[in-house]
């Protein structure tokens, strides 16, 4: 077997949120750490909203006057997380939550204790602590006291870089070595243990080639590059550069390899294989070109076990503006689908299971006017663009409910019955049949009425973001990858969306990034255990 070209105690494959957490933690434990990334680092984390789901009494919550505790946080998350992880792991996640925010803060991630006064999918630049899930929605209020746990990294616009950037800078100061433009191709196994990786690197390529690759990588990493043809073309260009100018290298991991390569939403064939009945092709892949499942498949090739590979999260956010929570979401049969105040992933799941994956949001003239007035004060730029497009282009309007329904292709008689039942429950102070809280309900009486298209098929006017939630099965105490044959794969660890974790059943904003940090730190510290043995 060919000799090693370089070595480290711990080799981290993929340098996004989970990767930097793993690398930094392993380095804090005394290991020599090398992280590689096919692109430029940052992954989906750098492009994200920078939301970390945390509670149990973080310093941010305390400064904002929020009296959260571990049991309250746990009671809510038990309903959201289900059996994705064990009860012990979920409790540990909640118990360690305040310390996680302390750790992030200590490494330079900026947070701010400014409470968002309105319910939203993502707060404007004035606010950095908010209800990022369904905590304040019907049913969940009865499970636990609603508490704001969406910790947005402080920074304008979309805050993912304000989360990843400081962590990467701290890792560099601590001595983590990083090689970008280096693609892992195979795990090396010796005597039953993972001892390193094989990769292709552009380190030795001419500077002009490396600059061109970096430019293409920046484009392909953007979540807006979602058209399969365009993404495939970009991938073909990058692969051509790697074939022509790449150099094969073998990198030894003396203690462990940590896979933090993300999910597989950018791999259409892989999504179709695991979720053939899901309307994934009508959605907007949320992530980067690096979310191609390569880390998962490399591990599977040596006998690693995987789970929840058919789990996708689809997001249909209707707020801001927060007034739209007062609308009713209906399917083609004219039936209501869900408590509309739920988190957008819950609404997206309801749309995915509706007939033809079609759904609409019904508003009356008063509600629409209120929503329009809120767009500016409550929204950041991408939300304004999305809402304006929905209100202008994806609509069917009529003087009556029946007329709007006919124009949209919705059962008119059934919709009239649904609206009457909705208004009647409000008039007679009866509970909402789908659990929407009384303070959010609004009667719909004033024409004209408008049905806003929130279907999967509204791809051009209102794209449906989606991502994969499944991945490699890991030992929940250590992050070691489990083997199909039983036990673990010695020397191999996984974290983030390359692994099954806290958010692998359902999703609320910030839960994936929080799991990246939680599972990344877990894998990082335990990957050091074999150092020197």
Keywords:
533 residues, alpha/beta, 18 helices
Outline the structure in words.
This protein has 533 residues and is an alpha/beta fold. It contains 18 helices and 20 strands. The strands form five sheets. Strands 1, 2, 6, 7, 8, 9, 19 and 20 form an eight-stranded mixed beta sheet that branches. It has a four-stranded antiparallel beta sheet with strand order 13-14-16-15. Helix 1 runs parallel beside helix 18, helix 9 runs antiparallel to helix 10 and helix 16 (401-408) packs across helix 17. The protein is globular, with a radius of gyration of 24 Å. The two termini are 22 Å apart. 55% of the residues are buried.
Number of helices: 18
Q: First CA to last CA: what distance?
A: 22 Å
Please state roughly what percent of the residues sit in beta strands, choosing from under 5%, 5-15%, 15-25%, 25-35%, 35-45% or over 45%: 15-25%
Query: Which spans have pLDDT < 50 for at least 5 consecutive residues?
Result: none
Instruction: Estimate the global geometry from the Cα principal axes.
Output: globular
Structural class by sheet pairing and helices = alpha/beta
Average pLDDT figure? 93
Number of strands: 20
> What Rg do the Cα atoms give?
24 Å
Assign a percent range to the helix content. 25-40%
Q: Biggest sheet, in brief?
A: 8 strands, mixed
Topology:
Blueprint: E1 6-13, H1 17-28, E2 33-36, H2 43-47, E3 51-53, H3 59-63, H4 70-81, H5 87-95, H6 97-106, E4 129-130, H7 140-143, E5 150-152, H8 160-174, E6 177-179, E7 182-190, E8 193-201, H9 207-221, H10 228-245, E9 247-259, H11 268-274, E10 284-285, H12 294-300, E11 306-307, E12 312-314, E13 328-330, H13 344-352, E14 360-363, H14 365-378, H15 381-393, E15 395-398, H16 401-408, H17 412-427, E16 449-453, E17 465-468, E18 471-472, E19 480-482, E20 488-494, H18 511-527
Helix pairs in contact: 1-8, 1-18, 4-5, 9-10, 16-17
